[in-house]
Amino acid sequence: MLPSVLAACRGDDDDDDGNPLGPNVPAPVTGISFDLRTDVGIFQIIDLLEQIEGAFYTAVVRSATFNTFNTDEREVFTDLRDAEVIHREIVRAFLGNQRLPDIRGSINTATLNSMLSSKQNIITSARMFESLGVSGLNGAGKYLQDARNLAFAGKVASVEGRHLAALRELLPPAGVNANTAFASDETIDANGRDIKLEAGDILSRLLATNILVAGTLANPPISNAPTAVQGVPTPNFFPANP
Fold first, then answer.
1. Could you tell me if residue 233 is inside a domain?
2. Domain of 105, in residue numbers
């Protein structure tokens, strides 16, 4: 499947038409909701997160601030852009006609421009999005019913975790030892477990970033929670300062 997925990746992500999100941005979408009783509903949340990450990193690489980065930083963010675009397209290929609409038109450009206004804002925002991605995938695992889907989610979580480690090393969160920021006590607990959030908490934190315009998600955004047969909620573990 991979060659066809790579071919499906939007080849216009690098085109320059003055829009930080790229050309042909669609109209905003509204009322997205998630039915978490199925693997499809769970992967639709992953679709949302990957679309946002892909849009964000595309905008970073197209931004004026990107030109102030040193060579290593530009390489990191270009690699992040490429990886997240591939993740996005793989997830959307998996979902087929059940994938979410293209949500680029629902990106809050005022918030995005604020995130792009400085190197610190870019890295801090990137850490938050990667933290939400890792946490969401880890939190979703116990509810997935198809072992193949669980294996795929685990692989994506591993890659997202490496992205987060690289970003925390580039710019450690305030109060975190720079020598251990890539894998500190904030991201790995005493039992060696990674960060994790339940789906509702993921969406709440995502909405709190104001990256989506009001009304993009339904209220409430989760139409049906996972069933008890799928699994039961577990305590969250998330850094106070991602």
1. no
2. 30-183+191-224
Token code pair at residue 117: 């206004």
The first and second tokens of residue 50, run together, are: 């990957």
Determine, yes or no, domain membership for 237: no
Taking CA 130 as the corner, what is the angle to CA 241 and CA 194, rounded to the nearest 5 degrees? 75
**Domain count along the chain:** 1
Segment-wise mean pLDDT, segments of 10 residues, the chain, 242 residues = 41 58 92 98 98 98 97 97 96 97 97 98 97 95 96 94 93 80 70 88 98 98 97 92 84
Query: Is 139 a domain residue?
Result: yes
- Rounded CA-CA distance 46/202 in Å is 10
Phi, psi of 172 (to 5 degrees): -60, 145
> Residue 91 half-sphere exposure, CB side, CA atoms within 13 Å?
32
Assigned domain for 66 exists: yes
Residue owning tokens 């989760």: 222
Global pTM value: 0.91
